[in-house]
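Comment thread on ticket #2218

A.B. wrote:
> Attaching the input chain for the structure job we discussed in standup.
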Amino acid sequence: MAGIYIHIPFCKQACYYCDFHFSTSLKYKDELLQALVKEIQLQKGYLDGETIETIYFGGGTPSVLSSDEINLLLGTITNLHTVSSNAEITLEANPDDLDREKLSLLSKTDINRLSIGIQSFFDDDLKWMNRVHKANEAESSVKRAQDTGIENITVDLIYGYPLLNDQKWKQNLEKVFELNVPHVSSYSMTVEPRTALATFIKNKKQPAMDDQQSAAQFLILMDAMQQQGFEHYEISNFCKPGHYSKHNSNYWKGVKYLGIGPSAHSFNGETRQWNIPNNTKYIQALQQASIPSETEILTETDRLNEYIMTSLRTIWGLDLNKLNTIAEAASSQLNIAAQRYFENGWIEQKDQIINLTQTGKLYADHIASELFF
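C.D. wrote:
> Ran it. Output below, let me know if you need it in another format.
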């Protein structure tokens, strides 16, 4: 099984914290779509004929696409690949795009899962982030989707920023639980270089993020999700039983995937490939039947470290037997490096599986980097 990711690099406006590749101009949307179709055709052999289990429209804001444009891309994929009859097909969407007409048209496509970028149910917070939608649209978009018959919904929430005190954070979570969605992705506000937020902080127009606040709100998040019956199956992802994101889970499990579009990444087990993050150059290259990408051949050390980084983030944990299939006796070396984290209660081991404890989840990236070969 394999997955396909399609990057739609358009947004109505730029969120202050975002460092993903996108454009706020839709001027060349038609040319970009034709380039995406061409890349799908040129990349036909990348996955070696494996059945496609997941398709994910990310961005940017893929909900700017019409249903006809979505069908064009899905039709191109199904003409060239074997797509599983129960494939998970996800569309990221902003709440303001999901009016009744849009949802009605989406229900006539093969999209069967929505990822809605809510981030907050407070207007002041959304304005601080420079989000397009309003708080009332966040709530109503989920209800409209459910009324349309789309039940497989995940919502995004952000915590750990100055406006969000613990009480407001708990109210955001309570609102999500009231909406009865089966999956939640939640992220600590991260200040990325070259974003508006980074500039505001540098110029003293905004305070820096508070690590202690983020840690406290992450603990609130984990406790609330557990009380509501959600499984914490990846550091930033929670779901009701059986509602894992198949697409994202496959990233963490090292399953092959093909990335289509400017800035998109691909992985086939042996190499990693990434496209140029420039719409104009991407379109021009594809018009010449050329894929504007770079490729890296993964070394044994690369594959060990990638497995450590991704597996430790998940409920399935780091399998020492699998580690040894990448490099002989790798588990012995890792156990030596991990000893202090066993002793301080940040990681635990059952049989051949190492998992982060709840406290360890606060330091996931640090622990992984310290265990790298």
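A.B. wrote:
> Thanks. Noting for the ticket: DSSP finds 14 helices and 15 strands in the chain.
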